[in-house]
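Workshop exercise sheet. Pairs work together: one partner reads the sequence aloud, the other fills in the structure field after running the prediction. Swap roles for the next sheet.
Pair: D.N. / O.F.
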Amino acid sequence: MFSKPYAVKCWLKHWQQQQRRQLVTTWTPLATAFNSPPFKRLNLTRNEVGLLGMMELRTHEGFYLMRENASNVAENLIKEATSPERKRKIVQIFDELSDSLCKVADLSEFIRIAHPQAKYMQAAEDACISISSTVEHLNTHKELYSALSRVVETGDIVPTTEVDHHVAKLFLFDFEQSGIHLKEQERQKVVRLNDYILQLGQKFMHGASQPTAFPRGKVPEVIRNYFPSEGDTILVSGLYTSSTNPQAREAAYRVFLYPSEKQEELLSDMIKCRHALARTCGFETYAHRALKASTVEKPEMVTDFIDVLTKELKPRAEKDFRTMENMKRRECGNSDVTVAVWDTPYFTSLMKRNALNASADEFLPYFSLGGCMEGLNNLLRSLYGISLQNTLMEPGESWHNDIYKLSVVHEKEGLLGYIYCDFFERENKPNQDCHFTIRGGKLMSDGSYQLPVVVVMLNLCQARWTGPTLLTPSRVDNLFHEMGHAMHSMLARTEYQHVTGTRCSTDFAEVPSVLMEYFASDPRVLRTFARHFQTHKPMSDSMLQRLCNSKNLFSASETQLQVFYSALDQAYHGDPKNQGDNTTETLRQIQEKHYGLPYVEDTAWQLRFSHLVGYGAKYYSYLISKSIASHIWQTYFEKNPFNREAGEKYRCEVLSHGGGVPSRNLVANFLKCDLTAESLAKSLINEIDANNEKIEELLKT
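Structure field:
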């Protein structure tokens, strides 16, 4: 006789084997691969192909060879471009020059932050520095600049196309960013300003992330324990938006955002230097400089767009705030309390939890990583006729043993490119979800096509022996978003790598990725893959509807907040005469005009706004991209998210061009309408109104 515990163990083992068999037999090969821990291929021959299939990178020392080769290629191409006997288009030579440098710079930038071995990270960083030095040399090469400038102004010695002219103008603008077209004294000023702006930005970003120290005795005793302390000082490192205690939320807001003289000085100096840089380069303001060659083209259109949205959103956001205020009064048991800026994230999150009628964890079993990848594969096959095929890597090809490689294959055209999936968290890996271009696609001189290679980076938990990696609904959105960037790179078929895929204007680059979020929020799409990883049972229609509708709660007030941020960014980088005595006074003025909740005295939220460094004068890009993606969704995919005809049209008329066609023309032609402030705002307002109707129906049930 076996003991009872032994019998239970046997039964449990048998049950686990059955579950594994079920996973294997009911999921597709792609889903099965991503629902299983990746494994490192056993290398019996000891022959390695090198990182990402590059033979030079079988050891870290290959970076030194690659950067030297790139420099040598660059010198030869400079000679060709400046030669009176040049035979090729100038733009072809410039793109080859750009390609040779980007292949090293983009790869090195990724390996520098992602590789787990210090020697590879250091070699990659050295390569980045070396290529940057080469680029600085090119930016001061007046003979090279003159050759390009003559072509842009008077035409080339060989026949060219509209795309050639557009790309040549982009190269020229990149050149002039360093002031090469200016007199030497002014050029040196541009160099100094660029260097100083870089230093100011780095210091500002560092300060923006530092905790605020505050005397412990000045914090009410009832909430002191909410914050860590050092002796007689408490440290506040965030806004505590998830705290159920309204006093703690308020204290965190007031303390964390308390004005810092050093941060104010850094931000103010950065804004002044940017304006001086723009004026030296011949622009009216820094915003005019930043928006050249963008979708909106001029800051005046951004201002008009913001003003239209401000007017339309005001009554809709007020309704959101009244709802939050009623929630706060019920929760506090006090009919006199009002909603404040520190309350909105908390009550937005609470409302979403209530609408879900379940915790986010209850949705986890329905979103296994493999299931989500299968859902993506089904969607991409329906829209574009392409499939994602898990591909075995060669020894030495991967920088870690938990990487997947996908071949992107079209049903008729064959292989389109490769996506490396670096999906799992690990020590020292950056905690960010992003897309890296390793090699851009381009037409080669022999008529073949240089296939694009990208990396999609996420930070998911590794699969356990008890089951696969499971994603929260927000993680599913992030996966679709980043894969949207990847597909932009895969489906672009541009002649030049300088404008391939995501290498387009900032306010258009997010359109394909934001559009993918619409697919991830549609019950018809989720229904194709949202299945329990053990039972394979599909998510119920009720759960699907609640999940999708919950994503749009309080969308008017959230959009209004983005409008406020965008307006503030434009004000800082616009005409100084329209700014306040300091950055906080400017914030106060903008908040009063564009946001529904008042400014809080003795706070300086902008001094924590690190996006002002990387997205100076371009923060509006999220709203414009959202507006365009919304318009595309409503026009082409809302009725049928699997519409092959619409997918092919979107691929051919939008994705295939990358940045090879001015994005304003691209969007206007595809949507068959002029891009105006009114038309852009209308798509967002229509979406908000439609979602609010759905939400009201949901809350009635």
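Discussion prompt: The chain has 26 helices and ten strands. What would you look at next?
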